[in-house]
C-alpha cells in the first residue's frame, strides 16, 4: 500500500508514463515529456488499433475533441481555461494533462476569496529577510512562479473564486511570460522557460461572482466541459472511479451491476426533473454531476464495509443517495419524497428485485430526516 | 479472375492469417473485396462509381468525360425524371427534381400526397454527367433506375422520400461507429473527407475507380444479408442492367462508347443480371395507375443535410472544396448553357489521350502508401483565419489579430495531432471555437455557426421562370402589374391602391387566392380584408414568393391555374367523408369571396344541404349559425333574390334543429354553446323559415319537449320560453330570486348565469335582464362561490359570445349611474317599486280635458282603452301643458 492517501497522477501512473515516454517518437513541443498524441493516448486510453504492446487505460471520459483542443492550446501561446458545471472532471483532466506534459501536477494555486497576488507571484520568508535582507534565497516563489522557472504546467483551480485584481495578476504572466521582482536590485526578473503554461478551471455556476476581465479572457482559450449525459460513458466513469476507491481503501467488496444501474437511472431521472423545473425551489441544490454519483456510491461502500456485513445492498445505496442529496429542508426533501413516491414506488412494483429494497431504504432515511 | 490483383490477394491472405483468429471468414471477405473490384473493372461497359456530394467524384468525372467523350451515359436516376432535367439550365443550383402524386391509384389513399425528391448540387458527379450529356451534341442521357412509382411499391412512405445518386454509407450503425471511432473523427462527413475525399482528390482515373469499387464492396459485404434495403437495392440493380441492355439492343450503341454512372455500392453487385453478359431474367414490375407530375423545386444545402442525415455544413464544405479543386487542378467543369449563379465555362483544357490498356493494380499502392498530399495551403488557411476573426468581431466577439494568429497556429497543431498533413475545414472550425469562443455568446450566432457561414454557408437554389410549371408562371404574369421582383428571395411589400388603379383588383384577387392555397408566410395581407359584401379600396401585402417557391410549384402539380386548384380543393373538402355542414358553408363563402362564382357557390351550397340532412351531431351548430347568417345577409343585399339552396338550407335547418333540440338538451356531450346556437338558428331565421312553409308549432313543441337537467341549459330554456311568450319576465326574475334564496342551490347559481349569458345569442332582448342577473349575483353571492366563477365568465364572454359582450356593456352603462357619487343614491331599476306605486297623486284634471275630451277619447280608442277617463286621469300631463300654453295666450 502506498503511504500516500491520494497519489498525484504522475506518481500513480509513473510506470505508464515512463513506458509511453520510452516509445514516443513524435515531435514534442518545448520541453514536453510526451508528444501531443501520446498525451491524448495517456488521457483517453489506447485501443487495439493503436498497435501498442501494452494496454493504456482510459482515465478521463468525454469527447475526444475536448482533449485535443485542450492539448493544442497548451502547445500554443495561450493558457487553458476548463469551464463547466461542478463535478464534470475539469480538475481531473487538468491534473492528467499536467502529469503527462510536465510530470508534475502539484503546482496548484487554489482560488478562493482569500487568494492574494502573493499566492500567484511570490512572497517573502520574513525571518530570512530580517536576517539576510531581500534576496532570491529569501523569496518564496508561488507554484505558478515555480512552474515558470521549471518550464512546466502550473494549475489554477477555481479561477473565478478569486477576486478580479488577483486574477489580473495572471495577465502579465501569460502575455510577457515573466515576473519582475522590484524589491531586488539585481536578478530581479524571473523568466518562464519554454513549456510553461497555465491550466485554470472555473465553475460555470460561479458565473457573475468574479467575472474575468476581457484582457484575461483573451489570454485563455476556453474549453467547455459538459455534464456527461451519455449513460454508457457515465457508467464507465463511475465504475472506474469506484474501482480506484476500493483499491485505495483496500476494500474487498463487490458492486453488483444492477445496483450501479439503479444509481445511474435515479440520477438520470432526477436530472430530467431538474431540467424541467421552473424555479430553484423545484430543483435539488445538488448539480447531480457524475462526481456526486461517485460520492453517493463511495458513501454506500464505506458504510457497508465498516458498519454493514461487507456487502453493498440497495438499502444502503438508497440511504446514501437520500442523505447526500437532501441538503435543504424542506425543499430537497420534498423533491426526493416526490421522486420516491412517483417513480421509485411504481418501478419497484413493476420490476421488483433491488428496486423494492431501494424503495424501503429511501423511505427509512426520508422518515429519519423528516 | 485476372492476374492483375494477384499480389494484392496474396498480401490480404497473409493479413487475414495474421490478424484473425479464424482466418476463413475474414479472408473470404477480404478476397471478396478484391474480386468485386476486379470484376467491376473488367466490365466491358465502363462503370463509373460515384458518391454523393463528393467533389473528388465530380473532378474524376470531369476528367473522364473529357478524355473518353462517351456517346451514351446511363445514369442511376429514376427513369421518369428524364424530361425535366433539361430545365435545370433555368435554375440556380441546388434544386431538386421532384415527382409528386396526389391522386393515388394502386396505393393506399392515406399515403397521399406522395413525393420523391432528388437534389442536385453543382459539386456532384451526376450534375457534371448531366451537363455534359445535355450540352454535347450527339450524346444521349439515359436514366435507368426504377421509376418513382416503383419506389413506393417497395418502400413505406415517409413524409417525403429523398433519393440520391451514389448513396454510399455503411449500412449498419456498428460499422459506422467503428469507422468513426478508429478514424478519430466525429461524424461520417468528416471520415469521408479525411479518408477518401482528400486522398482521392488528385488520383488518376484507375485509382479512383478501384478505390471507389473497394469502398462500395466493403459496405456491401458488411451489410446484413436480410437487410430490407439490400433487397430493394438488388432489384434496382436488376432494373438498371435490364434497361441498359434494352437500350443497347435498341440503339445499337457500342458499349465502349458508353458510361454507366452509379453509386459505388451498386458497382459491387452480385445479382445475376449484372453486366452486359448478365441474365435477362428480371421482369420489370408494372407501374400503378397513379399519375405522377414532375418538376423542379428549389433545394438548399441545409435541406439536403437534414434529409440525408449529414453533418451540418458538410454539403457547403463539399461545395467550397469543389471550387478549390477546380482552380487547383485547372479542370474545366461542365455547365449547362444558361445556368445561373455560376461562372461562365472557359474553353476546356487539352486533355491527355485516352488510356486503352487494361488497368493495372492501383489499389495496392493506394492502400499501402500514405497519400501524397499537397503542402500546407497556407494562403487559404490564413485567409480563413482573418475572415473568421472579422466575422466574429461583427458578431460582438472581442476578437483581434492575435486571435487570427492563434486560430492559425491551433489549426495546424490540431491537424498534426489528428494525423492530417493540412488542416481540414473541420480542424479549422475546432480551432476557431477554441480560440475565439469564451464563456458567453455575445450575439445571435456562435463561432461554429460563423465558421459554417464563412465556408460557404447555406446556399439556397432557385427555379427560374422558364422552368416553373404553367400555374406558377401564370401567377408571376398576373402579379406583374405590382412591379415586384417576385423571383427575389425575401419579403417585399406591395401597395395596391385599387380605387385609383382598378386594374390592381385582379392582382388583389390572385393574392387572396394565394393566401387560401399557400403557407401563411408566402403572401400575407397587412392592410385590407376580404369579407362578404365588403370591397377594399386599398390593400398592402407582404409577398415572399421567391422564398416560398416550392409550395407554389407544388400547386402547379394540381392544375393549370390557381382558380382551378382552388375549385378542386373546395370540391374535395366538401366531398370528404369528414366534411360537415359548417365546412361546406365555409367552402360556399370561399367560392363567393375568392372566385366570385355563383355556379360553384350553388353547387357547394347544395352539398351543404345534403350534409346537413344526414348530420346527427350538433357540434358545429355555432359555426353553421354564423356562416348561414353571414351568407343570408350577403345574399339579401347583393343578390336580387335568395339562391334556392339557401332557402332550402334554412327550411331544412329549421326542421333539423327542431328535431334534434330535445335530444341535444339531454345529451351530456352537447355543450350550452351548441344549444344556444341551435336556438339562435331557430329564432333568428324563423321569419324566413315560416315564410317558406315551416310551422311554428314545431318549434313550440320542440321547446316544450326539452327537459334539461344541467343548470346552464335550464336557464337557456327559460330564455327560450321567454322568447316564445310562455314565460313572463316577472316569472323569470322570481325564479332567479328563488335560486339565490335557496342555500342548497346557491353554489350552482353561477351555472344558471352562464346559461343566461349564452342566451344572449338566441334572445338578444334579454340583455337588460342578464345585466340585472349578473349585478344581483355580484351583490349577493358569497365570495367562495363568486370568485372561482369569474374567470369562466370572462372566458365565456370572450370566446363564446364576443359579438354580444359589447351589447352587454352598453346595456350596463345605460342602467348604472355614470358617475361614482351618484352611486350612493342610486337604486337599481329592478329594485325600484312597481310602476303603479310611482303614480303621481292625482291632480285635478285640467278643465281642457273635461271640456274638450274628444282628442283623448279618440286616442284612447285607438290604443284600445275602453274606459276613457282612465287615460285622462292617469296621464294628464299633455292636457295640462296644453292648457297652460293656451292660458298664456
Write up what this structure looks like.
The complex is a heterodimer of chains A (370) and B (889). Chain A has 370 residues and is α/β, with parallel strands linked by helices. Chain A has 16 helices and nine strands. Chain A has helices at residues 9-12, 14-23, 36-44, 64-75, 90-102, 117-120, 126-132, 143-150, 164-175, 214-219, 231-249, 257-276, 290-306, 314-325, 331-351, 354-369; strands spanning 79-84, 108-110, 122-124, 139-141, 153-157, 178-180, 189-191, 197-203, 220-225. In chain A, the strands form three sheets. In chain A, strands 2-5-8-1-9 form a five-stranded parallel β-sheet. Chain A has a two-stranded antiparallel ribbon with strand order 3-4. In chain A, a hairpin with an 8-residue loop joins strand 6 and strand 7 (189-191). The longest helix of chain A has 21 residues, at 331-351. Chain A starts with 8 loop residues before the first helix and ends with a helix. The N and C termini of chain B lie far apart (138 Å). In chain B, the strands form four sheets. Chain B has a four-stranded parallel β-sheet with strand order 1-8-2-6, sandwiched between helices. In chain B, strands 7-5-4-9 form a four-stranded mixed β-sheet. Chain B has a three-stranded antiparallel β-sheet with strand order 11-13-12, covered by helices on one side. Chain B has 40 helices and 13 strands. The radius of gyration of chain B is 41 Å and the shape is elongated. In chain B, helix 2 packs across helix 9 (205-221), helix 3 (55-68) packs parallel to helix 5 and helix 26 (644-666) runs antiparallel to helix 27. With 889 residues, chain B is an alpha/beta fold. Classes of the chains: A alpha/beta (370), B alpha/beta (889). Chain A binds chain B through residues 27, 36-37, 40, 47, 49, 64-65, 68-69, 71-73, 75-78, 83, 202, 204, 207, 212, 214, 217-218, 221-224, and chain B through 181-182, 184, 186, 398, 400, 402-403, 406, 409-410, 413-414, 416-418, 430-431, 433-435, 437-439.
